[in-house]
Amino acid sequence: MSGLATTDVAASLGDREVLSSVNFSAKPGEVVGLIGPNGVGKTTLLRILSGLLIPERGTVTLDDIPLATIPRAQRAKRIAYLPADAPVHWPLRVDRLVALGRIPHAGLWQPIDHTNTPTIDSAMKRTDVAHLAHRVISTLSSGERARVLIARALAVEPDVLLADEPVSSLDPYHQLQVMEMLQDVADDDRIVVAVLHDLTLAARFCDRIALIADGRIAHDGQPDVVLTSDVVQDAYGVETVTASTSAGEFVVPWRRMDSGSRST
Amino acid sequence: MTPQSVTPKRGEHIPHTGMSTATLLTGLSAVVLALFVASLMTGHVSLPLIKTLIATFDDDPGMLGLILLEIRLPRALLAVIVGGSLGFAGAALQGLLRNPLADPGVIGVSSSAGLGAVLVIYFGLAAGSDLAVPIAAMAGAAAAVSLLLGLAGRDAGPLTLILAGVAVNAFAGALISLALNLAPSPYAVIEAVFWLLGSLADRSFTHVWIALPLTVLGWLLLATAARPLDALSLGEDVARSLGFNLTRVRGQIVLGAACCVGAGVAVSGAIGFVGLVVPHLLRPLVGHEPGRLLIASGLGGAALLLAADMAARLLPVTHELRLGVVTALIGAPFFLHLIVRTRRTLV
């Protein structure tokens, strides 16, 4: 089977077992939303999928080849990882920062700039940061900065894009733009896995939703199957309302279940 | 935020790029070359350069030719080697540790090399051979690196590396103090302290040949780390996802810095602030990119040390000033100035 898959994967952070038995898969052409409450292991799973974290148990395969046996350089060309709140340690210029995404494809001494790599310009256009190309990253707003970092990941032109909370600091316009862009990337027969907290965006733009709970994938399926009021109430501990809109029905978190009994 | 995007036109004025790498490196090379020639002409005896150069090709180069070949030339070459190493290693360590305050002194290499030298002087072995002090200094540097890699462990983060470096530094400093405290004669103390202050006076080609092999090895190790240093700008996870084995990158940079700085300290004594100030000074000219900074910073270090060494020779004081004293006197206030000026752009 082509695609990214984990079999019976387990991982711990410190003494705490975060993931106990995760069976997850994603196929080319689909945007998979990874959802679940804070601390449930979404980022851990994303790092395992990217090869950054070796699971204690279980296997990860890309196109049926164990991830651990794919050489680093090869893996870097095929899988791009976009962390949440990634640091930028130096005040780099935006286009130079985005160009770092081309490192896996460039020879050791081959200079990387937009004169030889049109990918850099197109990546910046796709996240609407082309007009910021000559600005310094430390002078941007957090939303602009987040889009620049997404452009860096896009510049890799990966087969698999793993994005940790890509829209959490964006305004509605750019949230929609980035979600559309993720769909575009998937339409090029690539795999997109994104950690999301906005359930409405997840419902609208993901082809599939995987909800993590108790160290495994508790629910996995099309958005309308997973994002029911029962599942959301159970997973997040919130009461929901169902909003009927001209575009369909959406489950919206409304109040905490224990809000009456606890003040904090 | 407007939805339209504007693509900047090619060739328009681009702020913050610094300049092109080729322009910058050519310019810095020219500065180094000019200072090198100036350094050959600077000293107690004034040399008419062209005439002396011609004389060196004779069978009997004469007094002036000997001064040029045997005294001035090795001194200028060592300034380039040692200064280049300090600048190079400072830039690489700042990139690796993503900390603009890192320099070769931070990882304890300089002080450990100093400890090796002081021990040799302490036990009176320095009189035996010109090679004794440099070899002991390199052994000290090597011990520091082994200890550092041992302390920091395989997957040490930048903070662990810095803390391990501080520990190595403090321990080497304590042992140097102990040696000075227990020194058998005041002359040994004076000799050791003067050596620790750093100097390029009275060096010969022997010193150049001692320092060169390890220096070149260190430069090669550091130069090939440009790309991973660029990737590290975005943090360790992203650097690893871009295909780099960070354990190897760390080992490569720490070893490279130890080789070239250890070899430098071995022939010149400890010279501070060059590795700290030069990368700071040049960083805006390379758009703050750690990879492009490496070679520029090496050239900058060479230029700064050539200039400082000339200043040490030219300043009208009874005793020639020690090079480490000159660099610290210029470096420390300048560094303060830089911090005040750039603190707003530090990320």
Mind sketching the topology for me?
The complex is a heterodimer of chains A (264) and B (347).
Chain A: E1 4-13, E2 16-26, E3 31-35, H1 42-50, E4 57-62, E5 65-66, H2 72-78, E6 79-82, H3 94-99, H4 118-126, H5 142-155, E7 160-164, H6 172-187, E8 191-195, H7 199-205, E9 208-213, E10 216-221, H8 223-226, H9 229-236, E11 238-245, E12 248-256
Parallel strand pairs in A: 3-8, 3-9, 6-7, 7-8
Antiparallel strand pairs in A: 1-2, 1-4, 4-5, 9-10, 11-12
Helix pairs in contact in A: 4-5
Chain B: H1 21-41, H2 49-55, H3 62-97, H4 109-122, H5 132-152, H6 158-181, H7 186-197, H8 205-223, H9 226-232, H10 236-241, H11 246-268, H12 274-282, H13 290-314, H14 323-342
Name the descriptors:
heterodimer; A: 264 residues; alpha/beta; Rossmann fold; 6-stranded mixed sheet; 4-stranded antiparallel sheet; 9 helices; 12 strands; B: 347 residues; mainly alpha; ABC transporter involved in vitamin B12 uptake, BtuC; 14 helices; 70% helix; 0% strand; disordered N terminus
- List segments of chain B where confidence is low: pLDDT < 50 over at least 5 consecutive residues: 1-15
Rg of chain A over CA atoms, rounded to whole Å, is: 19 Å
As for the number of domains of chain A, it is 2
The CATH class of the largest domain in chain A, by name, is Alpha Beta
Terminal residue distance of chain A: 48 Å
**Strand order in the sheet with the most strands of chain A:** 6-7-8-3-9-10
Main beta-sheet strand count, sense and barrel state of chain A: 6 strands, mixed
Rg calculated over all Cα atoms of chain B: 21 Å
Low-pLDDT parts of chain A are: none
Helix-and-strand structural type of chain A: alpha/beta
Could you give me the name of the CATH homologous superfamily of the largest domain in chain A? Answer: P-loop containing nucleotide triphosphate hydrolases
Number of strands of chain B: 0
Q: Number of DSSP strands of chain A?
A: 12
Class by alpha and beta content of chain B: mainly alpha
Tell me the overall shape of chain A: globular
CATH architecture of the largest domain in chain A: 3-Layer(aba) Sandwich
Strand content of chain A: 25-35%
CATH architecture of chain B, please? Orthogonal Bundle
What order do the SSEs of chain A take from the amino end to the carboxyl end, as H and E?
A: EEEHEEHEHHHEHEHEEHHEE
